[in-house]
Amino acid sequence: MRPLEKHDVDVVCVYCPDTKACYYVDPKTFARSVTLRVTPTRNRQERYILLANAFRRVPDSSCRDR
User: Fold this and answer.
1) Average pLDDT, the chain
2) Three-state DSSP class for 13?
3) Above 60 in pLDDT, residue 64?
4) What kind and span of H or E run contains 22?
5) Of 2, 38, 39, 52, which residue is 20 to 30 A from 22 by alpha carbon distance?
6) How far apart (Å, rounded) are the C-alpha atoms in residues 18 and 34?
7) Chain centre to alpha carbon of residue 4
8) pLDDT at residue 48 above 80?
9) Would the pLDDT of 65 be above 80?
10) Is the overall model pTM greater than 0.90, yes or no?
11) In a domain, 47, yes or no
12) Domain count, the chain
């Protein structure tokens, strides 16, 4: 694992072969790492959970002019 230079990247696109979908993450909004869930939790926990479907679109902040 190697840290990402956040100021060099606008958005990270991650392809998940299980869902056959791309997920877009703005690295500046997270500290060191991010974990996306593709299925809801069994105990219906919502706090501190990042559902992958919320990351299906490119974040607006990454589309601004430099």
Assistant:
1) 87
2) strand
3) no
4) strand 21-25
5) 2
6) 18
7) 14
8) yes
9) no
10) no
11) yes
12) 1
Q: What is the spatial distance between Cα 11 and Cα 23, in angstroms, rounded to a whole number?
A: 10
β partners of residue 37? 51
Look at residues 28, 29, 46 and name the one whose alpha carbon lies nearest to residue 37. Answer: 46
pLDDT of residue 36: 95
Query: Residue 16 — φ and ψ, nearest 5°?
Result: -110, 110
Cα gap 48→2, rounded to integer Å: 25
Mean pLDDT of 41-53: 91
Measured in degrees and rounded to the nearest 5, phi and psi for residue 12 equal -110, 130
Residue 4 forms part of a structural domain: no
- Alpha-carbon span 13 to 33, nearest angstrom: 14
- For the record, the structure tokens of 3 come out as 């840290």
